[in-house]
């Protein structure tokens, strides 16, 4: 399966033989291959604020995903879900949403280096170590009529630093440590859909 977020809603490319696993477990609208073009479906998501999202059922999700991505201009970013010695997690609040520290990769920078750099810059952390990679997220939007695809690499990280200094110039209003229960109670319903999904899958909330 592949997922791209459009206007904060999921567009999933799902194997047709896995359809039963999704039915009854999602609010997304099911699409049959050939019923609507990928671009038409994405445009519908971009035009609506209340659309639940689409699940495209296809015999070849990898091929359909490749077809979609070849028509996009790729931008790569990287970020981290950071934990400390008290099993708390670093959450930031930016532009009215809870989020995780992340940013665009610099030229010739690895996702690992870029992810650690962004966390350090955005939250004032000095000591940081990568534990393991997490699932990548994708979202798409149009910029001057060009279809952009932002691919974000994510890593589970750890630190011994407790002090957090939010990077105000990057519109970060707060950076704070939260427990799993605090994330479940306060963050998920006020986070971007891609971040919500990442937190749910990683922390098993």
Key terms:
11 strands; 8-stranded mixed beta sheet; globular; 6 helices; single chain
Please provide a brief summary of the model.
The protein has 205 residues and is of the alpha/beta class.
Walk me through the structure.
This protein is 27% helix and 39% strand. The strands form 2 sheets. The chain has an 8-stranded mixed beta sheet with strand order 3-4-2-1-9-10-5-8, with helices on both faces. A 3-stranded antiparallel beta sheet has the order 7-6-11. It is built from 6 helices and 11 strands. The chain is globular. The chain has helices spanning 19-22, 38-47, 61-69, 111-123, 180-187, 193-203, and strands at 2-6, 9-15, 29-32, 54-58, 73-83, 89-94, 97-99, 102-104, 129-143, 146-158, 172-178. With 205 residues, the protein is α/β, with parallel strands linked by helices.
């Amino acid at each position: 399966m592949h997922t791209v977020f459009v206007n904060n809603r999921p567009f999933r490319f799902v194997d047709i033989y896995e359809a039963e696993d999704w039915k009854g477990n999602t609010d997304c609208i099911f699409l049959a291959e050939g019923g609507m073009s990928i671009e038409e479906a994405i445009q519908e998501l971009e035009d609506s604020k209340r659309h639940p999202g689409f699940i495209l059922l296809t015999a070849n999700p990898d091929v359909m995903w490749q077809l979609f991505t070849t028509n996009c201009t790729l931008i790569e970013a990287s970020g981290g879900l950071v934990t400390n010695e008290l099993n708390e997690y670093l959450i930031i609040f930016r532009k009215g949403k809870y989020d995780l520290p992340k940013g665009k990769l610099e030229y010739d920078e690895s996702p690992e280096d870029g992810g650690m750099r962004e966390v350090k810059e955005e939250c004032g952390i000095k000591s940081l170590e990568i534990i393991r990679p997490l699932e990548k997220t994708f979202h798409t939007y149009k910029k001057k009529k060009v279809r952009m695809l932002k691919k974000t690499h994510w890593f589970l990280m750890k630190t011994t630093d407790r002090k957090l200094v939010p990077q105000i110039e990057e519109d970060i209003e707060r950076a704070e440590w939260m427990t799993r229960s605090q994330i479940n109670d306060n963050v998920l319903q006020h986070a971007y859909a891609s971040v919500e999904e990442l937190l749910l899958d990683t922390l098993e909330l």
